[in-house]
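Aim 2, interim progress. The first record below pairs a target sequence with its structure tokens.
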Amino acid sequence: MIVSESLSQKAESLAERLGLSYDRLLGVRFAINVLIASSIVWFTLGALRDTAPIWAIASLVAASDPEPQQARQLFRSRMINVLVGCVVGFLFLLLGSGKPRMVPVALAVTVLISTYLVRVKTMWRQAPITAAIVIAASLFSASTTVGLQRGLHRVAEVVFGSVVGILVSWLMSKIWLVRTPADRSTKT
């Protein structure tokens, strides 16, 4: 792609003139990824009258990465552990009726399932975080059904944010690929 090669070369030239290292250039690209993705999420959920886009924003940041291969790996790991957290969170909602005393037990069980059964280490923390989001969304609900609906809504926000984060990372890697110093020296 000629446009992306040109943009990448211009960015690399600018980075060299400014004395930016590869990591600093990645940081600039990551900031641009987050700016674009968070704008998409914020305004999309705002247009849908979603009252708390912060879960989606946090998820897109966690799923984003300026290096495409790393972003794909994070996304896959994140989705697997989100699923584990959802299942355990919903089971605990059904069994414990969304009582606050169930949260620590649910989190511990989620960690054990994620680490011993699923074993996708990259995003182990995501499973208990998702279980907490699901359960917390229902804690102050009048009924288990409303709690389940709120939990599902929060999970949808997390998944939406993750998908936007990975898509923006992928698109940006096609428009502006930040090459490692070793890749730059072999192509010149």
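The second target in this work package is listed in the same format:
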Amino acid sequence: MRSASRLLLLLPALATSCVIELGEWGGNKATRNEELAFSPTEPIREILIDTYNGSVTVEATDAAELLGTSRIWATASTQERAEKRLSAMAWTFTEEGNGRVVLKMSHPASGGSNNAGATAVLKVPIGARVLVDTSNGGVEIHGAFPYAWVDTGNGSVVVHGAQEVAVDTSNGPVDVKSDGKVLVDTSNGGVRYAGSSTDFTLDSSNGDVEITLAGDWSGQGVADTSNGSITLNCAGTLQCGIKSSTSNGKLHVEGPQVAGTSGLLNLQTSNGSIWVKHGAQ
């Protein structure tokens, strides 16, 4: 039997309000606030949230349904055109099968994503993998999700609690707390990581990298930046090798002699110093 994806228009679940105001760039701006709710036909195992020009916040819930609020906006040269653009924008929820769903904000009929966008604050079932794709907006994900993936530009990223994390952003700092595999790639922003991951790669440019490791540590860790310093604090002792390289800076190690051979910390920077502190202080 041939199956088809299920596409729904997420209409306001409880309330909608429309606001008229003066927009940016001397134009006119129309906004709409919505409360969203969707009950899937099967448990959500993975969700992709696809929006633009707006921030996204995801929180974990034990409930099976997806709940949230959104602020949608559009601007144009006249108020009538702004309202027309806004009326064409809506959230759609598609069930693609095997528990994968896509929550997407449609584009206005004219002008594409220019001078329009949507923010979202969502409660997502805790067992789902969370994927967020947005632009010109920050992203926050809070909860013990099995996996969190973020792709954004011109926005900060915060991921706390996900078991595995992958982040790709620009022009914004990244803050991650996780005990699983972590991959971070950013530019023009610092990176802050805390946890006990034995497999992490933190790559930045024009930003500092701060690492806090819980307990004794061995594994594979990489921190690479330019025009920034690297600071690593380990609550226990480092039981691995350390490979470091810097220009216009120095390497400082505080704590017991590092002589472990189980794994490697690779710390690379330019125009910054590297500080490593471990063991009882």
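Helices lie at 79-87. This observation will shape the mutagenesis plan for the next reporting period.
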